[in-house]
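Q: Predict the bound structure with zinc ion.
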Amino acid sequence: MPVYEFECPHGKIIEELVPMGTEEIVCPECRQPAKRIISPCTFTLKGGGWYADGYAAKGGTKPR
Ligand SMILES: [Zn+2]
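A: Predicted complex:
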């Protein structure tokens, strides 16, 4: 089972081990439905940075 992050309406981030595909849990603190956070931004940023580095190292302008 994957660990997903959920954000509840009162701003709490909850990490929870839930069955794959779970979209929503009940916040243990305020009893409101907390929605799963999908954060593809992190991957995009990491991938982009890595790509840029590789590019620069391979075909970049060499100093002298
Ligand atoms: Zn809550």
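A: The helical segments are 40-59.
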